[in-house]
User: What shape does this take?
Amino acid sequence: MTSELKRTPLYPLYANYPGARCIDFGGWELPVQFSGIQKEHDAVRTQAGLFDVSHMGEFMVTGHFSEAFLQQLTTNDVAKLRDGQAQYTLMCDPSGGVVDDLLVYRITADQYMVVVNAANIDKDFEWMREHLIGDVTLENKSDELALLALQGPHAAAIMALAAESFDCGTLAPFHFAADVSVGGAAALVSRTGYTGEDGFEIYVPAEAAQQVWNALFEVGEAHGLVPAGLGARDTLRFEARLPLYGQELSHTISPLEAGLGFFVKLDKGSFIGREALLKQKADGVPRKLVGIEMIDRGIPRCHYAVYAQGQHIGEVTTGTQSPTLKRNLGLALIEAQFAELGTELEVEIRGKRLKAEVVKAPFYRRSPKE
Assistant: This one.
């Protein structure tokens, strides 16, 4: 690794794990695994995993016009948020392409936190800065905050031990609490995640990150907690059909094509990209993101070409052998006319066109009892 790569506040702790292997992820030196992708994936599905996602970006939006500002920038309806609630949403450009997907946290009516993808921090900050209105102030707090993601069916039991004087069981999905003491550090704790499992995302001052990481493992090891890297994060989110910017979403892929219409509130009023998305909906979405399963032996990988009836109709956006299901699965962005379940397709793998079919996604949903 070159010294030019950015490192999170937790980087020094990676040395404690002999199996840790780091890669360049969008300019960050991050662990792809600590003990093995399959092991870490299984731990999150059955027990718990802890991810260092401190490379994510956090912006503070403050001012009386904060809600109006975010309403104009994002596709979801910010006006529906109350203090202590979070919302998944997207920022679009005028053509309907996606600038980024993000989380919006309403702290108060005049203060919000916006969490963006690491590779888009600078781009997003400039995009938002260009569209400031009224008294709105935009601050990039990314370097000041660390983010840990505790995910899995045992996450709540671990949080109950680590979060002093706070009943995490009262925190509903997409709700958060500020000033929670976790391992002795003040944290913002939200019931959100990117794995398809129950879990929490824990925002702490960068200087407290190692303290919180160690505290979570001190109480979590008895519950099967393991450190988890980018590899498991990707397979987990893939099985749950959660999009990755740059693969399922981009400037050339709209939220409607990606199957995220639920998060696009076309009736809320004006926002950037609304006219293009209204037209796309009226005309019919030209492409759709679908689940595919290989019939022939082979694994569909990102950018592999997809064919139907002898013609090129799109490409795979993400694909792997599902660690949970042991099936060769993928997500593919294809022409809408071929998106029906059961449609026979071909995926070009190493110069050969191998049979596949359109299947239902998400591929995995956790039990509601968990």
Remarks:
- The two ends are 40 Å apart (CA to CA).
